[in-house]
Amino acid sequence: MNAHLKPTGSAYFLTTETQATERHTLTVLVDNEPGVLARVVGLFSARGYNIDSLTVSETEHDRHRSRITIVTVATPKVLAQIKLQLERLVPVHKVHDLTAEGGSLERELALLKVAGKGENRVETLRLADAFRAQVVDASTESFVFEITGKPSKIDQFITLMTPLGLVEVVRTGLVAITRGPDGM
């Protein structure tokens, strides 16, 4: 029996999906008009695709265009379907898979509120300095830190702050851009 065939309890066999899922960062250049973001997100939700991160902002003011950055986890087959369906939407001008194209820079911003007194405050400040996190608010009982970097760096900082009194985390979602002189 082939490895990709699975018995179903009957005389017939069905093929099963054996492709592994992959994390991909997509950028989508769209017209900046009401309803466009809802249509893009609707494309994902209607087909059962998950969005791990979503950021959007107008980036070409004179042309009224926005850039949507989407992080999703999917099989290569599903990812190809996602890109084709995005390209078919009327307000979409360009779709890029930055992961497949390689050579992109990815960053995220997070704000973390950490409460604590005494030794925990000293350790909190020491770790923040090591991670190049900036204090953007301080009181005698808490700090709010701003940290930017790769999501893995932010995840690590959150892990270290948790036992020291982490109260709240707010994250922007991923933004990404290709290296080199060419634009989207």
TrEMBL record:
Matches recorded under InterPro entries: Acetalactate_synth_ssu, Acetolactate_synth/TF_NikR_C, Acetolactate_synth_ssu_C, ACT-like_dom_sf, ACT_dom, AHAS_ACT, AHAS_small-like_ACT
Quaternary data: Dimer of large and small chains.
Keyword entries, A-Z: Amino-acid biosynthesis, Branched-chain amino acid biosynthesis, Transferase
Range of residues in the leader sequence: none
The ACT domain, residue ranges: 25-100
Swiss-Prot/TrEMBL catalytic activity: 2 pyruvate + H(+) = (2S)-2-acetolactate + CO2
Coiled-coil residue windows: none
Pathway: Amino-acid biosynthesis; L-valine biosynthesis; L-valine from pyruvate: step 1/4; Amino-acid biosynthesis; L-isoleucine biosynthesis; L-isoleucine from 2-oxobutanoate: step 1/4
Protein family: Belongs to the acetolactate synthase small subunit family.
The protein's name in its UniProt record: Acetolactate synthase small subunit
Lineage start: Bacteria, Pseudomonadati, Pseudomonadota, Alphaproteobacteria, Hyphomicrobiales
E.C. number(s) listed in UniProt: 2.2.1.6
The species this protein was found in: Pelagibacterium nitratireducens
GO molecular function: acetolactate synthase activity
Domain of life: Bacteria
Function: Catalyzes the conversion of 2 pyruvate molecules into acetolactate in the first common step of the biosynthetic pathway of the branched-amino acids such as leucine, isoleucine, and valine.
